[in-house]
Design goal:
36% helix; 6-stranded mixed beta sheet; binds adenosine-5'-triphosphate; 4-stranded antiparallel beta sheet; globular; transport; ABC_transporter-like_ATP-bd; 237 residues; P-loop_NTPase; alpha/beta; single chain; 27% strand
Amino acid sequence: MASYPVELLQITHHYSGEPVLADVSLAFEANCVTVILGKSGSGKSTLLQVINGMIRPGTGTVKIFGEPISYKDIHTMRLQMGYVVQQVGLFPHLTIYENIALLGKVVHRPTDVIRKRVVHLMDMVKLPQAYGDKYPYQLSGGEQQRAGLCRAMLLEPPVLLMDEPFAALDYETKHTIYDHLLAIQKHEPRTVILVSHDLEEAQLLADNVVWLQDGTAKMTGDASVIRSIQESYRSGK
Ligand SMILES: Nc1ncnc2c1ncn2[C@@H]1O[C@H](COP(=O)(O)OP(=O)(O)OP(=O)(O)O)[C@@H](O)[C@H]1O
């Protein structure tokens, strides 16, 4: 039986005695976009950090490509996972090119291979190549976010984790980046796990959806469950 790229088995986690994840078991389908929806404080970011090993859960197992995470060797495992957050986290003293290329240097990829990949990624998200020489402060929020996306995909990670990466962007910029993301999924599909509280974003991007409520996976399924989630939002349940 083929294993899932990411699997959570009975994950429970507490912060200072307060439960934040309660017996969460989920399997994320390969090469699909799964959107984890939930209100503020429902445990979405914690769940994502449990997946990339930043947080070791109180109990339960995280499996990456069928193998439980080895917390001793977390850096090797993390190279398989791109991570994009809302505050893009580009290094201000590095150019856009240097920011995107950074991980390639860390794993000693040949310079020409890195350069080709950066050019390809910038093309995919429609960032002009000349922007490679600029510094992050010279780019708009949406452009910085696109650079962040390129950086996360440099090493072609099979899994991409995204924590509300578009929340601070205006409607039009968001929609442009959605289009880029969907185009990238077509050209080089990967397992994307995207945390959001935005139902429209889920509607546009999700193959699958998880509805997290008070640290529990209340509903899971394909994008058709968004309608039930919408009702739950409205009724405040
Ligand atoms: N490091 C921490 N120490 C203590 N409590 C924390 C910590 N991180 C998060 N929490 C608490 O755990 C709960 C879940 O937080 P989490 O950030 O996972 O939720 P979220 O669904 O991502 O929220 P948001 O949409 O507001 O970002 C919240 O009540 C939060 O205050």
